[in-house]
Design goal:
Layout (H helix, E strand, L loop, with lengths): L12 E12 L20 E6 L7 E3 L1 H10 L3 E5 L1 E2 L2 H6 L4 E3 L12 E2 L14 E2 L8 E6 L3 E2 L9 E2 L4 E5 L2 E5 L4 H23 L4 H9 L9
Amino acid sequence: MWSPTRQEGPTKIVGQAYTVRFVPKNEPSKAKIEGHYIDRVPPGHVLFVSGPQGVINALYGGLMSRRAQALGAVGTIVDGRIRDLEEHRDLDYTVRFSPDSFGHPIFVPYLRWQTLTLGVKVFARDTSSVSPQEKLHVGEVNEPVTLQSPEQPDTVIKPGDYLIGDVNGVVCLPKHLAEGVLALMPSQVEADERIAEDLDKGKGFEQASKEHRAHVRKVRDL
């Protein structure tokens, strides 16, 4: 199932989160929308779909990607399983879905994902051929969603948070921190570029790092 290779491809996605949470069928739905959630995805957003831990059912399929693409969504991240892998690959659309391992740098919750495909660049917990209808239904739409990870039980993705994904993984940047984080990035990027140049010239990493990272802006500088 894991074909053709993992963690490969140039795809990058950046957008604000539009969240959907699946719950067991015996749990009442609190979704405050009429119709299907996929018809409400705002243009330019990243669809974040979550489901209960340990569920073998796929939460998301190829038709959902087709509709999200038509609405102008940036991409999809699924904290759970998906199906129709080949259909996602054939679409010119980015789909990412989560694995079991996560981490976080500094104050930004960092979700580490595994790349499954080349064509559509899929990140996944796993795939499944089983639809969600028998076991699950949509419980909430565009409400805060807790990451289904025992390693990060307090990580919450809120509507409007920024989701940034590439071959290295996915970062959730809380909306209220975005302006400050963006202010820190230029000096860090410049320092890394200069360190890389020095390493190519034969300079040791410790020396290059001390020279160029001494003036990198930090959270305390905000």
